[in-house]
TrEMBL record:
It is an enzyme of class 2 (transferase). InterPro entries: NDK-like_dom, NDK-like_dom_sf, Nucleoside_diP_kinase, Nucleoside_diP_kinase_AS. This is Nucleoside diphosphate kinase. Keywords: ATP-binding, Kinase, Nucleotide-binding, Transferase. Its cofactor is Mg(2+). It comes from Nyssa sinensis. Gene3D superfamilies: Nucleoside diphosphate kinase-like domain (3.30.70.141). GO terms for biological process: CTP biosynthetic process; GTP biosynthetic process; response to hydrogen peroxide; UTP biosynthetic process. The lineage of its organism: Eukaryota, Viridiplantae, Streptophyta, Embryophyta, Tracheophyta. It catalyses: a ribonucleoside 5'-diphosphate + ATP = a ribonucleoside 5'-triphosphate + ADP; a 2'-deoxyribonucleoside 5'-diphosphate + ATP = a 2'-deoxyribonucleoside 5'-triphosphate + ADP.
Length: 236
């Protein structure tokens, strides 16, 4: 990691392991105005330069500490302290039987495509009872479990595997909360559903469950890896 200290328009490189004030760094720079340190990743971009944004550290003070002088208060502002690299995730999205019967499959797919996520798996599938019970096993103790299994196996579902940076959290936002009456307008459930028992679509709730559910619903060879032409137009 490399740090650039900018004063009066002149950058000075320093080690990020010692974020010293300009006057503390070999006495090479003295400046009484606000200073700006830019942290820049000096490692190779690993092919994901779009995922390595600059992080800015702003030090606002009337002056920097000098030996023998009283140190003024320094305010540190970190507006975008983010990881230098973001991971590509996978999520499992399923249009439930009510969504299929109501002809909402295309509408739901288009929302994910417009967001820029990559579709890697897609199939129309009649879910057997055993698979439904395995998928929803965490809800087995709930009183509504038998009705839930009957619902999921009542007609075909559309199974989808999607991929992208932050796709799990983004998909959850696109879908909306479980109860459609509480879901925000603009979400799939907020716009297209009215009851929890018929809430149209399922989405994985974590990256780990995304991988598990894709492996559960798709056989080997049914998920395809490909490079979309729009990739450079989505991220820098």
């Amino acid at each position: 990691m490399e740090a650039l200290a900018v004063c009066g328009g002149s950058p000075f490189a320093s080690s990020s392991s010692h974020l010293l004030s300009p006057t503390q760094r070999n006495g090479s720079l003295s400046c009484n105005s606000s200073h700006k340190l830019i942290l820049r990743n000096s490692h190779p971009n690993h092919g994901l330069s779009a995922f390595q944004p600059l992080s800015h550290l702003f030090l606002n003070s009337t002056s920097f500490p000098h030996a023998g002088k009283k140190s003024p208060k320094t305010h540190i502002f970190l507006p975008h302290l983010v990881a230098s690299m973001e991971e590509i995730e996978e999520t499992y999205i399923m249009v439930k039987p009510d969504g299929v019967q109501r002809g909402l499959v295309g509408e739901i797919i288009s929302r994910f495509e417009k967001k820029g996520f990559k579709l890697t798996g897609l199939k129309l599938f009649q879910c057997p009872k055993e698979l439904a019970e395995e998928h929803y096993k965490d809800l087995k103790s709930k009183s509504f479990f038998p009705k839930l299994i009957d619902y999921i196996t009542s007609g075909p579902v559309v199974c989808m595997a999607w991929e992208g940076v932050g796709v799990v959290a983004s998909a959850r936002k696109l879908i909306g909360v479980t109860n459609p009456l509480q879901a925000e307008p603009g979400t799939i459930r907020g716009d297209l559903a009215v009851q929890t028992g018929r809430n149209v679509v399922h989405g994985s709730d974590s990256p780990e469950n995304g991988k598990r559910e894709i492996a559960l619903w798709f056989k080997e060879g049914e998920v395809c890896q490909w490079t979309p032409a729009q990739a450079p137009w989505l991220r820098e």
